[in-house]
Write a structure and sequence with these properties.
Jelly Rolls; 5 domains; 15% strand; Cyt_c_Planctomycete-type
Length: 1243
């Protein structure tokens, strides 16, 4: 808010000197005195450079036009304001106890602002500015210290003042005052102010556009009680849709003449007049197509334009062939990451349609405000849908079809039928007309979604309805079968369009990442690690196999050496000394970076930089020097002279080491699996499902010697690769969306960011960087969703823990509250990372530290220490230079776009090519996923651990970096090796690093997602469980009630539980899927990262596969199912049995299996098909109304969902073409294959 310097002269006579001087918000008012009572203690005028005084959340647009001349002559012509969407706000942190923002009884307050809003409904509050009520877990929920708001009443916006007193015995603790005067919205800028002395309810006064107004305490009544005072933040604009300017807070009641002079406007009072309605011109439409256009930022979601308002610019344009749409496209920001539409949005569909001459019935279906034009004439319109709020809305009955067989109106859409006359043009019986549909979606308080939109006509007012199509020769009849098929086709087209938009946006960053990868390749080529190993020639075999075989050969040679006198001396004399004197600190523990329980350990350098043992040279061995000096072991007596001489002689003789725990069987190479086992394994490990019958037959028939390598490459490029691997990343990064209310560590659904990154083939360093930068929408699939942590007092500390364990192998869970007792990390390390993520210093909250009382009277030295003192601000610093080999120096400047951004620097430090830990940890994750055990175990906690094959780990890490961090390249390297393709007989997971040989992969059970998805693929079924949301009508914003869409693969599910145990909030069709997932180790709530699933067998697993609702439904030869068609079309029982085995187990049946199954399948095989005259089509269940959040407390909602549950448990009707007795035998065979052990174990 900037005033013209000349205009200010006219105010000097009214205002004390300095009254208009801006006071930066985060600076205390040290100059306020009785002589300058008008000094604002905080002021936001939103001019350039002021954003440092607040943080933005959501869609906030700066540099907007504020009140300006000539309408407001005192303002500067360049005066700026800020524009906010309904879910956006600005936040200003409190400054601690007794801050300038804290008001208590006896304190005076004046709040003022300039406001410009375009819509408000009766009873709707729009926050201008307030302190408290942020729902922060650090404070009570009802902690409003003060708030200036607008309240909708009688079609106007009224001034509204709100505060909360301390709750007491059932009495009202909310106190709200609403003014008598108001103003119509969408009439430009208005000045508002409220003055009040806390404790004196009669002192309150409102000011609107320079006029004084009284009002009423209309909630909680007038009170002298003090307000709640705490250290919660100040928020600006929460739920406010429109523009704000000139917000100020005073700790005085401003004089009437001062407030009266705040508003000076020239011109007649503004009135609301609708703009003239005209059909929009979308330009030329290609033949055979219709244009779909999206524009964001409509002034209101409930109306068309007022006079003087303008249409928003086009945001997206794409093409289709019909006036039919099931959803609007996903919005992507400039990097190609999911964002939010700046609602309300305008959807337009336009096309030149050939329509028959005559008088027709025209059908318009949409959810919200809509209008339909034909050749410039307004044909039909829909008003804004009635708002559904609360949870006691009436159940909406299922509508009857407009004509027999027609598709019913979907909930919660609206429809309008109007008469459409197509006049003749010449002798033709039809005429080409321009049709334009306009729909406004996303009004405040709702999710921005369209639902099913369509325009259809009933020719001559008779017969069926048909959706308007650009191809008049192929009418789209409005029946469920036709429309559902068309919607699937349109969904595929829309996904392809979204892929194009996203990938095109992502190219804006390609140059930066190409440069980074060039730097990475150069660093590796010049490093010692990069040149430490040259892969063997092709004649020497696969590099992975060479590493594995070299270790086995080395140990086998060592076993031969164990028979020498030196080995005998080691076993009888040296080993007992080390075991008794050294293993306590240097055995399983790794004190000083040294372990003496393996040859690899004793030859290492540790933290001192000197080799503990140099074979053949006692003088150069640090071990001998330390024991000679008496430094080690740290006991009073140390070692005896005889013991020291034994060690010296052992070193002088070459330090021969005898491995006492080698199991020679663990070095015997397992055979390579056959083609049937291989094709099943590789499909499961790449795309997450078993191959279908045709894919198995094709691979088995292929005689090419390169077919395995070719299939691996083909599957790694398959889109389903993302569907499989996204679950791994969701576990690792603790993706934890909630469908109802936030819960502990709940996040946004950043699964979509991960999935699209994998589909698009983003490099790993780029995906991780964009994750850490937390861009896009928090609640609609952007990487910003990673930054949320519900009910967590320090979200960035939680994220720091996840990043360190997932990508650096540094476990810091204990460091949340104290220094780690079993690790070297300290609490300060974790909060240094958290500060880098938060982009500012921060202190651990009191709730995240061990209280001093814990240590009092403990009676012994505590295992835990708290070296970080209470209240100490931790600065954004990189604490892991030693562990990772990368420092925060000028090298990092080359890897970032904004060197001053600590969050981006953290991302660069983690993903830097100099960070050897990052690439090693990641390839170790991949190795464990494919082989069943890591090269380093555990995968997330490397402190004190050693690699079983350090050279191979180094080589794989280099391969990742020099191939631009392409995960699929490393996966292909591993999977094309014989090591991966051997039979799963290994015991690597239980073995120590020294004895982990990877002579074979470990046995692996299918993941829960693989089991569920393979059930659907094997049975030929389509996953149809409905939308995962509690608000099917979109009547809550995404920040409160999200939608996870319509799952088509198991990774798309989330926890269905809610704290309200009501049938009306159940998911009858989704629950059977989740039951199977949970039985096999999946969890829908990842409060902490999951590095290894619980894969232990339990009683639920056979039970859920044998008798669970999902298995019983999918294994049924149901009406119109693939399994029924297979049975009907089978030539003979042998072919049918082959088909079933290929579908479910990816192989042909063996002789014993044929002997077991064929007799039963053959019995009455020729009579299995019922004659056509006796086939009775199963009756369809009548459709049920929709139970959703807005009606879930209505008793009928429980009955509806309970009926749905009964139908799901009953399962689909059997196919009437099959004889019942034979069909049940057939289904038993299928059931047996699903319950065969090999169905759930990777071969």
């Amino acid at each position: 808010m900037k005033f013209c310097s000349l205009a200010i002269v006219t105010l000097w006579m009214l205002l004390p000197f300095g009254a208009l001087k801006a006071q930066p918000p985060n600076q205390p008012d040290s100059s306020a005195t009785e002589s300058t009572p008008l000094k604002a203690i905080a002021e936001w005028d939103f001019e350039e450079g002021e954003s440092a005084h607040f943080r933005t959340h959501g869609n906030v647009e700066s540099d907007q036009e504020g009140p300006r001349p000539p309408e407001f002559p005192e303002m500067l012509p360049t005066n700026r304001a800020v524009k906010l969407d309904a879910e956006a706000y600005l936040s200003v942190p409190d400054e601690g106890e007794e801050s300038r923002f804290d008001f208590d009884n006896g304190d005076e307050i004046t709040l003022e602002a300039w406001v410009n809003t375009t819509s408000i409904r009766d009873g709707q509050p729009l926050y201008v500015i307030g302190k408290g009520r942020t729902n922060s877990p650090k404070f009570a929920r009802d902690n409003q210290n003060w708030a200036l708001r607008l309240m909708g009443k009688n079609g106007e916006a009224r001034l509204n003042f709100l505060f909360a007193s301390k709750p007491s015995g059932g009495g009202q603790h909310w106190h709200r005052w609403t003014s008598t005067l108001g103003f119509p919205v969408a009439t430009g800028w208005h000045h508002i102010a409220v003055t009040y002395r806390f404790g004196d309810p009669d002192s309150i006064t409102g000011w609107l556009n320079g006029k004084k107004t009284d009002g009423t305490w209309d909630m909680g009544g007038a009170t002298t009680k003090p307000p709640v005072v705490d250290d919660d933040a100040v928020w600006i604009g929460n739920r406010f849709s429109g523009k704000l300017d000139g917000i100020a807070i005073y700790r005085k009641v401003l004089a009437d003449e001062v407030l009266a002079a705040k508003f000076h406007r020239i011109g007649k009072p503004r009135t609301v007049v609708f703009a003239t309605e005209e059909m929009p011109d979308l330009g030329e439409v290609p033949d055979g197509q219709v244009i779909l256009q999206m524009s964001e930022g409509m002034p209101s979601g409930d109306r068309w334009l007022y006079d003087g308002e303008s249409w928003p610019a086009e945001t997206l344009r794409w093409f289709s062939d019909a006036f039919l749409l099931s959803r609007i496209p996903v919005r992507y920001e400039s990097w190609g990451i999911r964002s939010s539409w700046k609602a309300p949005v305008l959807l337009r569909i336009a096309g030149d349609i050939e329509l028959p001459v005559g008088t027709h019935q025209c059908l318009l279906r949409a959810r919200s405000t809509s209008r339909l034009w034909v050749d410039g004439q307004l044909v039909s319109r829909l008003k804004p849908a009635r708002r559904r709020g609360g949870n006691l809305e009436p159940i909406v009955p299922v509508p009857d079809p407009l004509v027999p067989g027609a598709r019913r109106l979907p909930f919660p859409q609206q429809e309008a039928i109007s008469e459409l006359v197509i006049a003749p043009a010449g002798d033709s019986g039809s005429r080409r007309v321009r049709v334009v549909l306009e729909v406004i979606d996303g009004r405040p308080g709702n999710r921005t979604e369209s639902g099913e939109v369509c325009v259809a006509i009933q020719q001559d007012g008779q017969g069926p309805f048909a959706v308007l199509s650009a191809d008049a020769s192929a009418p789209l009849l409005m029946t469920d079968d036709v429309i559902e098929s068309k919607l699937q086709e349109l969904e595929a087209e829309l996904i392809a369009f979204e892929d194009h938009v996203r990938r095109e946006a992502a190219t804006s960053q390609d140059e930066f990442w190409n440069r980074r990868h060039s730097i990475a390749r150069k660093i590796v080529s010049e490093s010692e690690a990069g040149n430490a190993f040259q892969p063997p020639s092709e004649s020497a075999g696969h590099p992975v196999d060479r590493f594995v075989l070299d270790k086995i050969a080395s140990v086998q040679n060592q076993l031969g050496e164990n028979q020498t006198p030196a080995a005998k001396n080691s076993q009888e004399k040296v080993f007992p000394i080390l075991q008794e004197q050294c293993f306590r600190c240097h055995g399983e523990k790794e004190q000083g970076g040294l372990r003496f329980n393996s040859r690899q350990g004793i030859l290492s350098t540790g933290e001192s930089g000197f080799a503990a043992v140099v074979p053949g040279d006692p003088e150069a061995s640090e071990l001998i020097a330390r024991v000679r000096a008496g430094d080690m072991p740290p006991t009073e007596s140390g070692l005896s002279e005889e013991q020291i001489q034994v060690l010296e002689e052992w070193v002088r003789d070459g330090a021969v080491w005898v491995n006492h725990s080698i199991d020679e069987e663990s070095m015997e190479l397992a055979p390579v699996v056959d083609d049937s086992s291989f094709v099943r394994r590789v499909y499961l490990d790449t795309v997450g499902v078993v191959p279908n019958e045709e894919e198995v037959r094709q691979f088995l028939a292929d005689e090419s010697p390169a077919k395995r390598d070719q299939l691996i490459g083909q599957l790694l490029e398959d889109d389903r690769y993302a569907d499989h691997w996204v679950s791994f990343w969701m576990d690792l990064l603790a993706e934890n969306p909630t469908l109802l209310n936030q819960s502990l560590n709940s996040t946004g659904p950043f699964r979509w960011f991960l999935h699209e990154s994998l589909r698009d083939g983003k490099s790993l360093d780029r995906m991780v960087t964009e994750l850490i930068l937390m861009r896009g929408s928090s609640h609609e699939g952007g990487s910003a969703g990673f930054g949320l942590a519900g009910e967590n007092d320090s979200p960035m500390a939680a994220k720091g823990h996840i990043l360190a364990s997932a990508f650096l192998g540094i476990e810091m869970q204990c460091a949340r509250c104290h220094d780690s007792p079993y690790h070297s990390t300290k609490q300060e390390d974790l909060y240094s990372v958290a500060a880098m993520l938060k982009r500012q210093s921060l202190a651990p909250p009191d709730t995240s530290r061990v209280p001093d009382a814990f240590f009092e009277g403990i009676g012994r030295e505590s295992l835990i220490e708290v070296s970080l003192q209470p209240g100490v601000q931790v600065s954004p610093d990189w604490p892991f230079a030693e562990q990772t080999g990368v420092a925060d120096d000028e090298h990092i400047d080359l890897l970032v776009q904004n060197p001053g951004d600590s969050r981006e620097r953290l991302a660069a430090l983690i993903t830097s090519p100099k960070n050897r830990r990052f690439s090693k940890v990641v390839v170790n994750h991949l190795w464990r996923r494919l082989l069943g055990a890591g090269i380093v175990q555990p995968v997330h906690d490397w402190e004190g651990q050693t690699a079983s094959h350090p050279e191979m780990l180094e080589w794989l890490a280099n391969e990742l970096v020099v191939h631009d961090y392409d995960l699929r390249h490393v996966l292909k390297l591993i999977m094309t090796s014989e090591t991966y393709q051997r039979r799963a007989l290994g015991k690597n997971r239980q073995a120590s690093a020294e004895n982990r040989f990877f002579n074979a992969p470990d046995p692996r059970r299918l993941t829960a997602e693989q089991i569920v998805d393979s059930l659907f693929v094997s049975t030929g079924s389509v996953m149809d469980v409905g939308e995962l949301t509690f608000t099917h009508d979109g009547s809550e914003p995404a920040t409160r009630r999200t939608s996870l869409g319509f799952p088509r693969r198991a990774w798309m599910f989330a926890g269905l539980n809610n704290e309200r145990d009501r049938p009306s909030l159940s998911f009858p069709r989704a629950q059977p899927v989740v039951d199977v997932l949970e039985a096999f180790g999946w969890t829908g709530t990842r409060q902490q990262p999951i590095f290894e699933r619980d894969m232990d067998p339990n009683l639920l697993q056979p039970g859920i596969l044998e008798n669970g609702t999902l298995t019983m439904s999918l294994t049924r030869a149901a009406f119109e199912s693939e399994l029924a068609d297979l049975a009907v079309e089978a030539r003979d029982p042998d072919v049918l049995l082959d088909t079933l085995f290929l579908r479910f187990l990816s192989r042909f049946p063996n002789a014993d299996e044929k002997k077991a199954f064929l007799p039963d399948l053959s019995a009455r095989f020729e009579e299995r098909i019922v004659s056509a005259e006796h086939v009775e089509q199963p009756a369809e269940d009548p459709p049920l109304p929709k139970a959703t959040w807005s009606n879930h407390l209505v008793p009928e909602a429980n009955e509806i969902q309970e009926e749905r549950q009964r139908r799901v448990r009953r399962g689909p009707p059997a196919d009437p073409r099959l004889d019942r007795d034979w069909r049940e035998v057939y289904e038993d065979v299928i059931w047996s294959l699903v319950n065969d052990r090999s169905f759930v174990w990777i071969p």
